[in-house]
Amino acid sequence: MQTTGTVRRETAERRRDTLDRLATERDIWVSTAHPDDGPHQVPLWFSWDGQAVWMCTGAASATARNVRAEPRVRLALPDTFDVVLLQGAAECFPVHDVPGDAADAFATEFGWDPRREEEPFVYLRVAPRTVRAWRGEPELRGRVIMRDGRWQD
Q1: CA–CA gap between residue 106 and residue 146 (Å, rounded)
Q2: DSSP character string of 54-88
Q3: Which of 5, 37, 48, 115 is close enough to 95 for a disulfide, judged by CB 3.0 to 4.6 Å?
Q4: β-sheet bridge partners, residue 50
Q5: GO cellular-component terms in the record (predicted)?
């Protein structure tokens, strides 16, 4: 684990850094599980609206099927040194039910509008209940920066 030069950040700085990454990054790993078929993990594009992560996937995908059976998910930004993990329950929105502002923001950010595709897609919304963030071993203690949907001080 890389620790050289790592300075331990306080919770407020971790929160700011996490919110900045959520606003600027485009890929997130989505981990779901089905009661019979077990775990499933895929990378998806995501959009952060300030309260929740919005993603889109095929309506028949394993991710969508798993979320319908078991909505609890874990999300991870793709950096193994600057770790950000989010946990929450995913809500599934067929394209005709997704809030227009969320779908418009997603289409603007990625230049792709799933509402215009022939195949059915669903939007997944995850409002995190728990967020963990750390850079290397010096930050493992205190890595929970959101608990029960509330940012920690």
Answers
A1: 25
A2: EEEEETTSHHHHHHHH--EEEEE-S-SSEEEEEEE
A3: 115
A4: none
A5: cytosol
